[in-house]
Write a structure and sequence with these properties.
The structure is a homodimer of 359-residue chains. The first copy, chain A, is α/β, with parallel strands linked by helices and 359 residues long. Chain A is 36% helix and 16% strand. Chain A has two domains: 17-255, Aspartate Aminotransferase, domain 2; 258-358, Aspartate Aminotransferase, domain 1. Chain A contains ten helices and 14 strands. Chains A and B meet through helix 1, helix 3 and helix 7 of A and helix 1, helix 3 and helix 7 of B.
Chain lengths: 359, 359
């Protein structure tokens, strides 16, 4: 069996142990004579997986009783609509921080449903960054403030979340479970699974119960957070195999020492690359140092030709997925929880060699 | 490896060959050093799978050039909203046939968006059935007529689709690909995958191009059919592993002889059970004979106690999932394309033995 270093921004590398476990049980799940993906979502086997996944998330993230955890479909892109549909009440304004490509999409969809105030707009600045507390122009009585905790494309990550009176809503698709958080400070968190949690096709949502209960009523049942809260994410058929993979990944995370262990590992992994970038003029980080992402390490080389050569030579050494997003170019090393530290060390060694050869 | 007969209504049994293929390739997809679920949805491996799945559906269903095929998320339950959001224009009325539990849900969600006319309402009749052509009270200039081709719970299936001036929209979640269809007669078809196509988490949609192009504009990008048409279902990250399984299932279907072969097989499998039901008073079919589903064979026994004993004894003989939907009780044998004919024969033999013992 071959295994490469997969720096893809998402769908992304998963813990090898979880893949091997799923493979072993794939056709005949625990002697049941069925694959887990062939089973009724209301049967005992799947229900055990579903409940364990919910419980593991609650434990790993220390989610308080004031908040509910639900699984939905449609990715973060659907949440861009579900959030205002539910939480932006008639006559209210929602505040959004435009920190980059993903925030911009969230803002565009929110405008379909109501009044939007862009509280800070620096999505096109280079070096890329997140907001400073003193630049936010917040709306009194805003429905919520929306932020993007980690801009996957730009590699800029919020280090201190805004303190607000309005409920804080955050798209955490690319850094959920990568660090300890005080969940009680958030009104709603959502994350597409395919970066830090599991395969694509399932979205993790954590919502304050009172916000779900007080959401707009005249929207489809399927798009109401409260529907999924009240039905423990079994209102309709969930993406059962994706939830099963989430369950395996959360088990793995617990065995690794949970979020605290991941945070230490992610700090170490990203520091290896940022220290190397800072030690030379050959590589230039894309994000302001104080906002550098521990998940998506973005940098440039002196020329686009060198960047193309870098990607090609890395790929030949079984380091794949290093090409920056097509909208911005450059290099992006996505090193989520499941990305092994040896892979980061291998990339760092390659970067040194590449500079020695081409610098 | 153990393999039982799984009569689950969905998620449901899949072709054993497709599960074994996916298992073999699960950790290291075709020597790439990655699982297919770890790969970028914009990379060459996944793209080949995605395009093949689309092409296979077009071939299997003889989808004409006037129609597009897209993959979405959120199941048929989300389509209950997406259909009126896109196709029910201001000032128009949409016609719906209330044929049972699933149609009823579709109607409720449509009412959130506009005017709905229930063209026929027999959803609570027993024996269960589908509409007669002469009972439909259609609205002149209706946005569309919505029907549910196969009511999974009641076991009633449309045999001749209504002829209408308005675009015909059909929820085909539980019988898509089970029989030949003239796709040109439909404006829009949707189907959650987890019954006849693959795992839960992906929805197949076939839409007439002009309907997608003329859909309501002021709705979120993610909920517009045209967004997914224009982006070949890659506007956002698709549920890649679910699409991969669809690809394997469509390959299997082609190898079996396509939809014509499935239709013959499904007619034969369901006739085995209905013939047995008609040969005795011990078993009573739930649906009117002319509307009997080839996919979900629903029937009752003389008492609920006997039904409970039937389900229990069948389960002990490795025939699982025969319990009727919790809302209606009784017995339901779901025998989708992938359900093996030997399993139907085994159930028929068990039914004869059970009657001899308890009748």
């Amino acid at each position: 069996m071959k295994r490469i270093y997969n720096f893809s921004a998402g769908p992304a590398t998963l813990p090898l142990e979880t893949l091997q476990q799923a493979q072993a049980d794939f056709v005949d799940y625990q002697g049941s004579g069925m694959s887990i993906m062939e089973m009724s979502h209301r049967g005992k086997h799947y229900d055990a997986v579903h409940q364990e996944a919910l419980a593991n998330f609650r434990e790993l993230l220390s989610v308080p009783d004031t908040h509910e955890i639900v699984f939905m479909q449609g990715g973060a892109t659907s949440q861009f609509s579900f959030v205002p549909m539910n939480l932006l009440h008639p006559g209210q304004t929602a505040d959004y921080i435009n920190s980059g490509a993903w925030a911009k999409k969230a803002i565009a969809e929110a405008k379909v449903f109501g009044s939007v105030n862009v509280a800070a707009d620096f999505g096109k600045e280079i070096p890329t960054r997140q907001a400073y507390a003193d630049e936010l122009k917040l709306t009194p009585g805003a429905a919520y403030l929306h932020c993007t905790s980690n801009e996957t494309i730009s590699g800029a990550q919020i280090k201190a979340f805004p303190e607000t009176e309005a409920p804080l809503v955050s798209d955490m698709s690319s850094d959920i479970l990568s660090r300890a958080l005080d969940i009680s400070k958030f009104g709603l968190i959502y994350a597409g699974a395919q970066k830090n949690l599991g395969p694509s096709g399932v979205t993790l949502v954590i919502i304050r119960k009172d916000l779900a209960e007080q959401a707009n009523a005249n929207i489809p049942e399927m798009f109401k957070y409260q529907t999924h809260v009240a039905n423990q994410s079994l209102y309709n058929t969930p993406p059962t195999f994706a939830v099963y993979m989430l369950c395996l990944v959360t088990r793995w995370l617990k065995a690794q020492g949970g979020v605290a262990a991941m945070e230490a590992l992610n700090n170490r992994k990203s520091a290896t690359l940022y220290d190397l970038i800072d030690s030379t003029d050959f590589y230039r980080g894309t994000a302001l140092p104080e906002f550098r992402s521990t998940m998506n390490v973005t940098f440039r080389l002196p020329t686009e030709e060198l960047e193309a050569a870098f990607i090609k030579e890395a790929k030949a050494m079984d380091m794949d997925g290093l090409k920056g997003h097509r909208s911005v170019g450059g290099i992006r090393a996505s090193i989520y929880n499941a990305f092994p530290e040896e892979g980061v060390d291998a990339l760092a060694a390659f970067m040194k060699d590449f500079e020695a050869k081409h610098g």
